[in-house]
Amino acid sequence: MSDAPFLPLCTSGDGGVVLPLHLVKVGDEATLACLLGEHEAFLRRQGFEGRAGQFTFLPGGSGVVGAVFCVEEGRGPMPYGVLPAHLKEGCWQPQPEGQEEAAHDALLEELVLGFCLGAYDHSLKHEGSKDRKTGPQLCIPASLGKEARILARAAWLGRDLINTPANLMGPAELAAAARRMLEERKVAVELVEGEALEKAYPCLAAVGAGSDRPAVVVIGRRDGRSKDAPRLSLVGKGVCFDTGGYDIKPGSSMAKMKKDMGGAALMLALACALLDAGTDIALEIRLGCVENSVSGHAMRPGDVLTTRRGLRVEVGNTDAEGRLVLADLLAEAAESQPDVLLDAATLTGAARVALGPDLPALFSNDEELAEHILASGREAHDPLWQLPLWADYDGWMDSSIADCNNLSSRPMAGAITAALFLQRFVPEGQTWAHVDTYAWNDTARPGRPAGGEVLALRALFRAFSESF
Questions:
Q1: Which of 133, 154, 334, 432 is found 20 to 30 A from 125 (Cα to Cα)?
Q2: What is the reported pLDDT for 124?
């Protein structure tokens, strides 16, 4: 497993001082009073009451001799995301107070993950700088927090891809990054470009035709360790920047469009996490790396495109390009008849209107699979919300001159009609799920810095790292 990116963890003090970080359950007043010692009255007067999420340093003769963080059980990893901002630079050894051994290990998994997610920082200001501070680190034995390390690395990789400006992360750069990450994990990678791409993925090629930066499709394959390993096929929308095409977006809607490859980033992060964990699966991954731009070569409203599956699609709106990218990729992915076909995309604003920025919308043609993913999200404190593939709306995408339109005739249920469009390219009998994600944190919160986000990564990892 690659050690990049750097995580704020160490296994010893590297010769320096290691200070204790006491983790106290809310309500355990006896333990808290003991830790605060002779300073209890002073700290209480300063407003430290042992509430959930409260933090204080412990003073001593030589200065700070430790810290206390109050933990509310059952909240998952995110509350620990505040600690990188609270702690001073140096090494901190977690001390779960009053915990049994089994609970101790589980708490450390959550602590490591939340701490690392909160410590993430993406800035081009520090490129090449020798003065960048590393910040505080957790001192954790290498034998502990293994899954948390895997998920944190994957989350950092995905966030980095989404946060990179579009001039530095075009289709070629996204494809190169994906190839590097997959090949590091012994995945056989193929890049499809040029005439081969136009022939194999005509809809995707039409989306990319308006850009001077050619589209690339990344295909990765790796067999499972066992002959009967379950087969998982991942598909990600990698629109590196979306102007909307001729149906151009207003400036306010275009400001965050570097994140329109968030589905590809999520699927790539998930693949890396599953492979790093040694999950016994036969894995395929397809990423459609493309830019939706405006030029004399761009597709127009009213054009009719022939898809890989042979269906003809009328382009009702050039800003509904993500479903065109996924259509050809889903059709190809289904040809190998995987046990589960999963796609992710920043597909619709309608999903955000319905569910807000934090809840990815989940669609599936298999209720057992959907419930498995939803339950995994609840267990991982990484929720999704299921919306229906409501068949009565399918006719809203009828076209008078083609098999279907990429735009609904009704200004309602946009996330549902987009998912119904995708379902046309999934053969009957193929188990499939679709995640419509926002891929962004508008504001900073514990464990979730503002910027790119791989929402549902932990949920999907839990769902597919176990039997499915």
A1: 154
A2: 78
